[in-house]
């Protein structure tokens, strides 16, 4: 069982999780809420119906990611290849960590109520 599958099971009883703040440091984006955080350390994309809203390569990513504030994370969807994972959002979009061979750790998820920090790595 992959770490994204484990995260999906562990996070389910904690959902929804409200995004209250966002930080961007190219290429990393961190979304945070009360007692939890998600850091996407490598390539990531914010998509809606298979259309990319913004990703780590966009020149205006630093400003666009603020639109995540106020949304809720409703689900965790493991990707087809580790360590890919998507976080389903309340507006119907998804924030996803994408597979990458250049970054060892691609994402981390922390919640105060969980005994472990989940790390998606290749």
Automatic annotation (TrEMBL):
Superkingdom of source: Bacteria
Annotated protein name in UniProt: Uncharacterized protein
């Amino acid at each position: 069982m992959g770490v994204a599958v484990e995260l999906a099971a562990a996070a389910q009883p904690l959902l929804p999780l409200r995004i209250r703040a966002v930080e961007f440091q190219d290429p990393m984006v961190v979304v945070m809420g009360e007692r939890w955080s998600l850091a996407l350390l490598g390539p990531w994309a914010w998509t809606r119906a298979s259309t990319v809203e913004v990703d780590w390569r966009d020149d205006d990513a630093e400003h666009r990611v603020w639109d995540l504030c106020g949304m809720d994370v409703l689900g965790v969807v493991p990707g087809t290849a580790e360590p890919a994972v998507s976080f389903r959002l309340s507006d119907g979009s998804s924030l996803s960590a994408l597979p990458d061979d250049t970054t060892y750790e691609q994402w981390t998820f922390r919640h105060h109520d969980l005994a472990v920090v989940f790390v998606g790595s290749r």
